[in-house]
Amino acid sequence: MMKLTADELRTKYLKFFESKGHAIISGASLIPENDPTVLFTTAGMHPLVPYLLGEKHPAGTRLTDVQKCVRTGDIDAVGDSAHLTFFEMLGNWSLGDYFKKEAISWSYEFLTKELGFSPDQLNVTVFAGEDGIPRDDEAIAIWKSLGIPDERIFPLPKEDNWWGPAGTTGPCGPDSEMFIDTGKPACGPECRPGCHCGKYIEIWNDVFMQYNKTADGKYEPLKQHNVDTGMGVERTICMMNGYPTVYETELFAPIMAKIRELSTARPADEEQAVRAERIIADHMRTAVFLLGDPRQSVKPGNIGANYVLRRLIRRSVRYAKMLGIEPGYTAKIAEVVIAGYKHVYPELEQFRETVIGELTQEESRFEKTLAAGQKEFDKVATALKTHGQTQLSGRTAFKLYDTYGFPLEFTEELAKENGLDVDRAGYEAAFQKHQELSKQSAGTFKGGLQDHSVITTRLHTATHLLHKALKIVLGDHVAQKGSNITPERLRFDFSHPAKMTPEEVKRVEEIVNEQIQRDLPVTLETMSLEEARQAGATALFASKYGEQVKVYTMGDFSKEVCGGPHVTHTGELGGFKILKEESSSSGVRRIKAVISNMQ
Ligand code: SER
Questions:
Q1: Which residues contact 501 (CB under 8 A, 6 or more apart)?
Q2: Residue pair 32/41 in contact by the 8 Å Cβ criterion
Q3: What is the distance in A from the centroid of ligand 1 to the CA of 43?
Q4: With a threshold of 0.90, does the pTM exceed it?
Q5: pLDDT tens figures, 521-552
Q6: Spatial separation of the C-alpha atoms in residues 307 and 512, rounded to whole Å
Q7: Close Cβ partners of 245 (under 8 Å, ≥ 6 residues apart)
Q8: 3-state secondary structure of 69
Q9: 228 Cα to the center of ligand 1, angstroms
């Protein structure tokens, strides 16, 4: 196999598609412009959405570029061989020009002729058909005509082989993904491309964009048939050079070396140590690119993209502690990242001072909180040991969370290092107790605001987000059966035949929290019920024909007929947590939930 650097790969890709009639265009900022549906540019297609929807692109109908991307959906997988929060995507697009045959044939030609992958290493997936959309037999036939045998063509459901939209609405369609077989043994009889064991690494995706997903979840056929492809730079050079993980590539090697140089301790568990190094490298690289973005609009903070950046930096700091890395390290690692990328992304050099300054400031802010929390932890741990006890109380774990920003998992890690465990149930109970206390103090300050107090208004907004999230996770049969809000919690009854699984509860919480982090604007319009229905609004109660109703819209996420009032931005809710999911009556479930801004 050919050895290739990232620089060579970028050039080779652009030249190849230029030779196939594509115009080379510049990649865009990591922060989308005028697009409330996503926090970051998550794919090369993203800045091209208007053109995929039919607008004319000044450079023509065949385009190619390299795009910086940030995706945090897989953040928990970071630390394995190939999942990253920042990556570079090579892409080629057809805007109503060529379609499946050319796209797949060129992918195959580039992989085998230009990059020198053996056709035998190639495994591909195609859309198996679902929801009335047929199996992609055309893609199967094209792969076969190129010599890929049946046993290496995998038709998979929508969950695997459907791409997009990037946010909640926009262009999307069936795709065909290309995987390199690393030669590792299969993890079991079910192992196939898409399995996370590391045998198959996805490096490229050809999306056949034939649909536009609308705000009410419908798939409208697009006027023009587009192709959107994306190849991962880090993964491709990793595979080409035969490295076991992306962290050995020249893009990461100097960052990893710096982390090792700065480390003064190593957890006994080697797997944990390696994971910590990789998480620091990944998160720091992403933080540098966000802070060094030409748009200069993201700074560590509590809402939306700013919050994601804060989380990345703080998570990295926590792992740095695990490796005994001294404070002040973020600047040192940032220097290495900038040095490795400035010839491709000169903005990093241009904004070097901001990058280093913001990182250092955020690191030291978090250090102070952590140090105070550590002191508290040590005090408690010493007392416990003196008394021969082995369990840290839920109340202490909650205090560490509430006052010092220690996530429960972090406290658990610390506890483990000290031969202690944490009373998880006690932690949950303390969390609820806290909410009750908030209720009392809210009651004290409620005064004349009564039901329209700030907190109930926020909880009311949270109810809309919850309603929509339940529909997404459980299905469209979910309908509101009742709602009751007090200053200490919301209660929401809805139709659903079964107890929700813990995964479903978690997913609903995640979706609501995502919408809070996106800080969606909440807007009010008055219209007739018929107009509201046409606009895709959920309407609970029948009203007289022609009667004017109020419609509250939360960004692109939710639209409901409702009397209000609501907050003006979802970020005001702070965070969302489900306390309980239980039966209300036959076929009706009940959720009790709180938000973090209860005061
Ligand atoms: N948009 C598709 C993806 O992200 C192809 O680039 O996989």
A1: none
A2: yes
A3: 6
A4: no
A5: 888 887 877 788 888 888 765 444 456 777 88
A6: 15
A7: 80, 81, 82, 238, 278
A8: strand
A9: 7
